[in-house]
Amino acid sequence: MGFNLYYNVHMSDDTKKAEYYIYVISDATGETAETVTLAALSQFKKKDVIISRTGHVRSDDHIRSLVKEAAEVRALVVHTLVSDRLRSTLKEEAHKYQLLTIDIIGPLLETLSLYLGKSPQAKPGLLHKIDDYYFRRIEAIDFTVKHDDGQNLRTMVDADIALLGVSRTTKTPLSIYLAKEGWKVANVPIVLDIPPPQELFFMDQRKIVGLIIDPDKLTHIRKARLRHLGQEMSSYGDLEYIAQELDYCKNMFRKNRWPFVSVTNRAVEEVAVDVIALTVGKDRRVE
User: Fold this and answer.
1) What span, in angstroms and rounded, lies between the C-alpha atoms of 69 and 5?
2) What is the pLDDT of residue 188?
3) Structural fold of domain 4-123
4) Which CATH architecture does the domain made up of 127-278 adopt?
5) How far is CA 174 from CA 181, 187, 209, 236, in A?
6) Which residue ranges in the chain fall short of pLDDT 70?
7) For residue 27, what is the DSSP state?
8) What's the pTM value of the predicted model, to 2 decimals?
9) Do domains 4-123 and 127-278 have the same CATH topology?
10) How far apart are CA 48 and CA 20, in angstroms?
């Protein structure tokens, strides 16, 4: 098929020489209406059809202007308007010019309202918001995996949150949980007597949070890890060494004024609430 598509523009005199015209009007993006229209048109052999799609139509005056323009070329008007008021205005204006219209979403909203026993929210673009949130989460997970355990420090500045802590302080599980909520997270291991990476000081310091844990608890966790690996003899699971690591961490956090939270006997979800409150703000959500 060879349909010509125009987006949010007025058609020129040249484009007004086609045989058929379809005006797609929406108070969101108009993608749904356009997709349905193209699917239906694929069943016809007519190629001389121009489709003009206008999204984010939110006022009666805009509706009147578009319908008047559609009337100049005797266009078919296809629309997905969730607002009862806008649908009513479009219907009245189209009737005035005796234009054919197709309301794709109105009948479905009415039937769903009857079936569910609830009125629709009538908020434009909700589907697109869901899509945007989905892709934001995918992007956040990809970023977080690539910045796990001190990887790709050069691009860590783009993180929404940076987590610091010694080994086995749940940095990775916490990072993945936050990423699934839509936040891009980098986590950096802290090693005894080794300065933190300089890249940390080039990012917004309000994004950085340290993780601490009770020394006895961490000793138990690390010893279990060593047993699993068949390496029980190691300072990695030594209580005295672990206490030094954690003291080193706390001093570093205090010196750089990085807040820190305890992960001792706490669920990842619980710690995540504290981390979000300290960094992006507890009342903020991914948009």
Assistant:
1) 16
2) 98
3) Rossmann fold (3.40.50)
4) 3-Layer(aba) Sandwich (3.40)
5) 11, 9, 12, 22
6) 1-17, 46-47, 125-132, 282-287
7) S
8) 0.58
9) yes
10) 6
